[in-house]
UniProtKB/TrEMBL annotation:
The lineage of its organism: Bacteria, Pseudomonadati, Pseudomonadota, Gammaproteobacteria, Thiotrichales. Residues 415-437 are annotated as: Disordered. It comes from Leucothrix arctica. This is Peptidase M12B domain-containing protein. The chain crosses the membrane at residues 779-801. Pfam families: Reprolysin_4.
Length: 811
C-alpha cells in the first residue's frame, strides 16, 4: 500500500535503495545523485564493482523486474528489464548461463537498451533521450566483479583506422545469376522517396548463423560458451538498433555452436583475409548449418580482417557472404560501426558517405546514396576512418533515412522478403509533416520545424536529414549539389537549427555543417521514429538564392549588456530579401537564447534594415543570448555577432520534475525544488498545493519560503513503500506566482510534476490500497523545514479508509 506521508516523517530513510545496491563505486568520489540523465554524464566514466550473483538471482526471479543501472556521472536509473533472447530455443538450452533482457526507463520510453549476462560477465547498454550511448562492461573477460560505466561521447579513439569495408562481387568466380543482386534493384530517388503508410510494417525475424574463427574464440578465452556469449552481446546490441529503425530482429540458429571454432589451426577460415573468408563462410555455413536452415550468415574474425559483405544477399545463394573481424570485438565500435554496418549491406544498404580521404576513397563511395558530408556519421557511413573527412571518431547508432528506405525496399518488396518470418503487430507508424518548401538567401542560417503525432501514444523522436547527392568531396565548400549538413542523433523536438544553435551563439563552426553559398536546392527528410519499430518520413525542399550579400545583423557586433525597459537600435543588411524570389516583406526581432527560447521584442515590422526596440519590463535575466532578426513568413534568420546579456526585472521561478522509486518499506522523500534565476531581492512567500493527478485529492498544502539572498526552496512529501503492484503515481505541485517573481510561461500559475515509480512485481489484477493524506498549514523553507498540523493527524486516522485500484503497468 502506497501512502503519501507528511513532512515530519520525511527523514525516516533516504538510503533504502542505495543500501541494497548491487553496484559499489570503487572511487569514494561518487555518491548517489538525482535519478536522471544529466549533461555531465557525457563527459565521465565510472569504475564499479558488481555483486554478480545477486544480480543474476534478481533477474532470474522475475520476468519483469526493475534493475538499477549506474550512470557514468554517479547517478542511477531504474530500468524495467524484460527477457529477450536472441538465440533459438534449442541454442539457448545448450547455453543456459547466457541470457539477454531488453531494458527501458518506464518514465521515459526513449531511454532503451539491452543487458546480458553469461560467462563473460554483465554487459549493459542504453540509448539516452539526448542521443548518448551508455555502456557498462567488465574490465576483463576473467573478472565478473569490476566494471566501467562509460559514455560513447567520452569514448573517442575506439575507431580502427585500418578497418575497411567492401562490397564484394563474386559473379565471375561462381558463375551465378546472383550477380544482379549485388546492386540495388531500385534507384536512389526511390530509396529517398519510398512512401510509408500509417500501419507499421510487420516485424521480420531472420535466422542468422554466426561463425567464429579460432582466433575470435581465443580472444574470449578459448571456449565455445565464451565465444557464444560474445556473439550474444553483439547481436543483442545490433537487434536493439535493427528493431527500432527497421522492424527487423535477428535470431541465432539452433546449431550455431557447430560453427564456433576453438583452434586457429583447425578452423576452415583464413583469418585476416576477408576476401577468402567470405567465400569460405558461404561454403562452410551451407555445409554445417544447412542451406535451408538459415536466412543470413556471417563470420566473426580477429586482427585486420576488416569487413566484407555481399550487398542484398540475405535469403539468396550467397546469404552467408558477410565477414567482420577486429582485435577488439567487445566494444560498441565493433558492434555498431562494423557488424551492424556489414549486416546492413547484406539486407540492402549501401554506403552513405561523400568523402574521398583514406578509406572513403578506392571505390567505396556509392554515388547514388552519398548523402552524408565527409565520412558521414550514420551506421552506413565511415566515421573515424577517413582522415580529414572524419566528422567524428565512431558512428552514431542510427541508420540514415536513405538506408532505412533501401533496407525496407529490399526486405519488404525485394528478394529479402523471400525468407524470414513475419509477425503482424498492432503498432501504427507515426504521422509526420516536414512543412512547406521555402526560398532563402545564401549564407544565411535557417530553422526547419516539422510536426508529428502517434496514434498509439508513443513518444516520437525526430531527425532532420539532408538527402542531396552530388559531386564527391566538398566538405568545406558548397559545390552546388553536394550534401552540406550532417545528421544528428534524434531528439523529441521536431525543430532543427542550421547550423546548430549552440555553435551560432558561440560563433563556432562544426565540421559537417556548412551554410550554402551558391544558388542551388537543398532537400531534406524529417524522419520520425516511434522507437517501437515503426518509422515514417516527409520531405521538403529549399531553394537557395545567392543575392550577392548575406542577410546579417550589423549592430551589436560586440558583447552587449542590456536591462529591462531599455531602448536600442537594431540594424541589419536585408540582402535583397524583400524582392523576388524571396519576398520577405516583414521580420520579427527577438532575443534568442542558446536553448532555442525566443523572447519577442518587435513583431511584424518592415524588413527595412533598421528598427528601435524596447526590452520588456517583465523580462528575466539572460546571460547567453543574441539578437535575432527573423523573416516572419520564412525559415531564415540572422543573429548578432556579439552576445547579449539582459538584467531582467523580477527573477524567474521554476520547479523540477522529481522521480523516486517507491521502495518496499520505510519512507522515501519526493522533493520538489523551487529555483530562482537570480538571488531573491526580498524574502519570498510562495503558496503551493500538492495533488494526486489521478484523483485530484489534495495531499499537501502550504507555503514555501525563499529568504532574501537565496535562490531556492525545497518542498518535501514522503511516500511509504510497500510490496504491492501499482501504477506509477503522478503528484502535481501547483504554485501561485508571488508578487516578486515571474514564470517563464508568463502565466500566473506554475505546475510541477513528480513521479512515484512502482518497483514491485506485477501481479494479475493487482489491487492496491493507496492512502492520501491531506495536510494543511505545511511550510517549506530554503532549508527544507516543515510543520505538522492538526489536519495532518486527522489525515493519518483517515489512512485505513481510503482505497484506490490500479491497473498493471504496461510491459
Amino acid at each position: 500500500m502506497r501512502k503519501i506521508l507528511l513532512l515530519p516523517c520525511l527523514f525516516v530513510s533516504q538510503t533504502l535503495i542505495a543500501g541494497e545496491s548491487l553496484w559499489t563505486d570503487i572511487s569514494p568520489d561518487y555518491q548517489s545523485r538525482s535519478n536522471q540523465i544529466t549533461v555531465d554524464s557525457i563527459h565521465t566514466s565510472r569504475k564499479l564493482t558488481l555483486n554478480y550473483e545477486s544480480l543474476a538471482l534478481q533477474l532470474s526471479e522475475s520476468s519483469n523486474t526493475l534493475l538499477e543501472f549506474p550512470m557514468p556521472d554517479g547517478s542511477s536509473l531504474m530500468l524495467r528489464a524484460e527477457p529477450s533472447s536472441i538465440m533459438a530455443p534449442e541454442l539457448a538450452a545448450k547455453f543456459p548461463q547466457i541470457k539477454t533482457w531488453r531494458v527501458y526507463d518506464p518514465n521515459n520510453p526513449n531511454v532503451t537498451g539491452s543487458i546480458d549476462i553469461g560467462p563473460n560477465g554483465f554487459h549493459g547498454f542504453i540509448q539516452t533521450a539526448d542521443g548518448d550511448r551508455i555502456f557498462i562492461d567488465p574490465d576483463s573477460n576473467n573478472d565478473n566483479s569490476t566494471y566501467t560505466a562509460l559514455s560513447h561521447r567520452n569514448s573517442s579513439g575506439n575507431s580502427d583506422t585500418t578497418f575497411s569495408c567492401e562490397l564484394h562481387d563474386h559473379s565471375s568466380e561462381f558463375e551465378s545469376p546472383f550477380s544482379a543482386a549485388f546492386k540495388p534493384s531500385f534507384s536512389s530517388a526511390e530509396a529517398i522517396e519510398r512512401s510509408i503508410g500509417t500501419v507499421a510494417d510487420p516485424l521480420i525475424t531472420y535466422r542468422i548463423a554466426i561463425a567464429a574463427t579460432g582466433e575470435y574464440t581465443q580472444i574470449y578465452g578459448g571456449t565455445k560458451e565464451n565465444a557464444m556469449a560474445g556473439i550474444n552481446t553483439t547481436i543483442s546490441r545490433v537487434n536493439q538498433i535493427f528493431e527500432r529503425d527497421l522492424g527487423i530482429l535477428l535470431e541465432v540458429v539452433g546449431n550455431n555452436n557447430d560453427i564456433i571454432y576453438t583452434s586457429p589451426n583447425s578452423d576452415p577460415y583464413s583469418n585476416e583475409d576477408a576476401t577468402a573468408m567470405v567465400d569460405e563462410n558461404v561454403v562452410n555455413t551451407n555445409a554445417i548449418i544447412g542451406v535451408n536452415n538459415y536466412d543470413i550468415g556471417h563470420v566473426f574474425g580477429s586482427g585486420n580482417t576488416g569487413g566484407l559483405a555481399f550487398l542484398n544477399s540475405a535469403c539468396g545463394t550467397f546469404k552467408a557472404g558477410g565477414v567482420t573481424g577486429s582485435n577488439s570485438p567487445r566494444n560498441d565500435a565493433f558492434n555498431v560501426d562494423y557488424v551492424a554496418h556489414e549486416i546492413g549491406h547484406q539486407i540492402g544498404a549501401s554506403h552513405t558517405f561523400n568523402g574521398f580521404q583514406l578509406n572513403c576513397s578506392g571505390g567505396n563511395r556509392e554515388s547514388d546514396t552519398a548523402v552524408e558530408p565527409g565520412s558521414g556519421n550514420s551506421i552506413m557511413g565511415y566515421a573515424g576512418i577517413c582522415g580529414s573527412d572524419n566528422l567524428q571518431s565512431n558512428s552514431d547508432a542510427f541508420f540514415h533515412s536513405v538506408s532505412i528506405n533501401e533496407i525496407k525496399t529490399f526486405t519488404r518488396e525485394g528478394s529479402g522478403s523471400s525468407c524470414g518470418t513475419t509477425t503482424v503487430t498492432t503498432n501504427n507508424s507515426p504521422t509526420v509533416d516536414a512543412g512547406n518548401n521555402h526560398t532563402i538567401p545564401a549564407g544565411t542560417p535557417f530553422a526547419l520545424a516539422g510536426s508529428s503525432s502517434d496514434s498509439d501514444g508513443d513518444i516520437v523522436s525526430h531527425s532532420w536529414e539532408q538527402i542531396d547527392t552530388g559531386d564527391v568531396g566538398g566538405l568545406y565548400n558548397d559545390l552546388g549539389n553536394n550534401p552540406l549538413f550532417r545528421m544528428w542523433p534524434p531528439t523529441t523536438e521536431a525543430t532543427r537549427f542550421f547550423p546548430r544553435l549552440s555553435d551560432q551563439i558561440d560563433n563556432q563552426t562544426t565540421i559537417g555543417e556548412l551554410l550554402p553559398t551558391t544558388t542551388r536546392s537543398l532537400n531534406f527528410v524529417l524522419l520520425a521514429r516511434d522507437n517501437n519499430g515503426a518509422t515514417n518520413q516527409d520531405t521538403m525542399s529549399i531553394s537557395v538564392v545567392n543575392t550577392g550579400e548575406n542577410f546579417a545583423v550589423t549592430s551589436q557586433t560586440d558583447e552587449t549588456s542590456l536591462s529591462a525597459n531599455q531602448t536600442i537600435q537594431v540594424s541589419w543588411d536585408i540582402a535583397a530579401t524583400d524582392a523576388a524570389p524571396i519576398n520577405c516583406s516583414v521580420v520579427d526581432i527577438n532575443l534568442l537564447e542558446d536553448s532555442g527560447n525566443q523572447i519577442a521584442l518587435l513583431e511584424n515590422t518592415v524588413n527595412d534594415g533598421n528598427q528601435s526596440v524596447t526590452i520588456p519590463n517583465d523580462i528575466f535575466t539572460l546571460d547567453n543570448a543574441k539578437l535575432q532578426v527573423a523573416c516572419r513568413n520564412n525559415i531564415f534568420f540572422a543573429l548578432s555577432q556579439g552576445k547579449v546579456s539582459v538584467l531582467g526585472g523580477s527573477p524567474v521561478l521554476s520547479v523540477n520534475s522529481p522521480t523516486i522509486n517507491e521502495g518496499d518499506n520505510g519512507a522515501q522523500n519526493i522533493s520538489f525544488i523551487l529555483s530562482l534565476s537570480s538571488d531573491a531581492t526580498e524574502t519570498m512567500a510562495i503558496d503551493y498545493t500538492i495533488t494526486d493527478e489521478a484523483t485530484n485529492a489534495v495531499i499537501q498544502r502550504g507555503q514555501a519560503i525563499i529568504i532574501k539572498g537565496d535562490r531556492s526552496a525545497i518542498i518535501h512529501a514522503a511516500v511509504a513503500g510497500d510490496t504491492l503492484s501499482e501504477s506509477d503515481q503522478i503528484l502535481l505541485l501547483t504554485i501561485n506566482k508571488p508578487s516578486n517573481a515571474q514564470f517563464i510561461s508568463g502565466e500566473d500559475v506554475l505546475v510541477g510534476e513528480g513521479t512515484i515509480v512502482d518497483d514491485d512485481q506485477i501481479a494479475a489484477n493487482p489491487v492496491a490500497n493507496t492512502s492520501v493524506v491531506s495536510s494543511e498549514n505545511a511550510v517549506a523553507s530554503s532549508s527544507g523545514g516543515g510543520s505538522f498540523g492538526i489536519f495532518s493527524m486527522l489525515g493519518l486516522v483517515f489512512l485505513a479508509f481510503t482505497r484506490r485500484t490500479y491497473k498493471g503497468i504496461k510491459s
